User: Fold S-methylmethionine:homocysteine methyltransferase from Streptomonospora mangrovi.
Amino acid sequence: MDSLLPERGVLVLDGGLATRLEDLGCDLSDDLWSARLLQDDPALIRRAHRDFFAAGADVAVSAAYQASVPGFTRRGLGAAEARALIVRSVELARQARDEHGGGLVAAGIGPYGAARADGSEYTGAYDLDEDGLVAWHRERWHLLADSGADLMACETVPSAAEARALVRLLEETPHIGAWVSFSCRDGEHISDGTPLADCAAALARHPRVLAVGVNCTPPRHIPALLGRISGVPAVAYPNSGEQWDPRARRWRGARDPVAFGAAARDWRAAGAALIGGCCRTTPEHIRQIRAHLD
Assistant:
């Protein structure tokens, strides 16, 4: 991990890719979410990546969070075209990186729950055991590991079993490393109730687990959660702090990029070496993170 970190000892990640795409006018209200645009409007994905790089991000996470071969084939695509679209997610991020003039590209590995599109990435209530999760992730994992990405970003992982499954796949691709980032229910536990400290301790033993941390979790929990991680660099990219109202189908609260950027200093002091934003965070949030950290 040390070889990836700049002299200042922190990498700034990008923000909410889907949020940026929605702000650019996209309707992402289907099961594929932002992955739909890998087929329908790849140039817009490239633009969103470029916007985050321009705001100060060092790392772009590719638009593969909700992408899967079964998901694309359910829409009538052939398996070969589905595989090509998954690889395209990294190609678009690399193009944006090159247009910007530098940075890293992480291949986005969303959880099984993201492909189910039923909210289970925030509960870990799955119908697959660890072996089943290895089998489900394997094809996409190898496609992205061989896509030219600099590393893998295993994100919004809700369960200890899924984290173990992803590390088993990491063993199959010795040429690349990964970070593992969990969705968390509070300041101590990941979404399935496992203590984050236990997950971090197990993952820290693997030499190619580059960082362990938290994403898509309210900012108020981040300092306590970072305190549960030791023996490995920490990654933190929470959501904006707004709350989704499922009845009104709207976000409640206000986006405050300045406060978010100021909080990033506390996350850095708590040990985070990779810091960015998740849902509802924008290029302005990333600009404020960069300003406050610099």
Remarks:
- The chain has one domain: 11-293.
- The two ends are 20 Å apart (CA to CA).
- The chain has a mean pLDDT of 93.
